[in-house]
Fold:
Amino acid sequence: MRILDTFDDALIAQLRETHEFFWLDATGLTAEQIKHLGTLLDLHPLAIEDSVKFGQRPKLDAYGDTALLVLEGGVASRPEDENPHPLEEIHCHLSGDFIVTLHRNPFPELQTLRTLFEHHTTKRSEQYHVYKIVDVIVDSFFPILADLDEEINDLEDAIVSGAGRRELAETFRLKRLLLVLRKAVVPMRDVFAREIEVIADLAGLESDSHDYFRDVYDHLIRITDELDSYHEMVAGCTDLYLSTVANRQGETSKQLAIIASIFLPLSFLTGFFGMNFTWEIANILVGPWAFFALGIGTMAVAAGSMWLFFRRKGWTGNDA
Structure:
């Protein structure tokens, strides 16, 4: 198999004339270049139109001896980074003579696979090479899933330590990311479940084993299951956040209730002494010690008694 990273009209015409299978991996082609390439490879006008516009849903469209397979690849990033573009749309034009992969941005996994093919000495079937390209694109989601697992665990620990606005924003960000990933993976899973035989039956492709594409389907099922489990974990983070905030509010409310309860008898005592102040200073509160003993003393005894009562009931401790 020949590997091309730029298209040369004469070379492609020669390869097609000799029916030598080749892979062209092109990045960031303009609309005019894609149309010219489509004319050179005799691609269907609808397939060319889809590749010019991009923004397609994962699908597999067959046009006679050629087919267009639209896939979404995962763009991995570290958990601490905010990745605004977690997906890369890749158009795979398939035929018995070639496979062309078009994408707007560089896709490192395909670059690595090209290097691997260049150093591969064992002869493989054309269908195997198609499988490897598709498999590399699908498997690009696994590093993202590994990062998500670590990030969700860190988020749970952060919420338990102290739920704040940062943790709430991170929870919603993960929810949105999981939704984006699932919208990309589920249609690919459905394509491989129903229509992948179209690739195996393309005229000109050497017949090999359908187990290759079944392996890709198994990977997509695994990715979908992990995304569903992560979605449940993030939903659990939301419940944990709400529970932590409610517990914190309950603890604050309890403390305020204790303070209000302690000040209730104090308010009664100050009100009682205040309303009878003239009679008290003439008959009872004679001298400074009487004032401190009956005035301040009764309030101190009342506050201390209330505190001891709450402590014995276990209301002054931390529920955690």
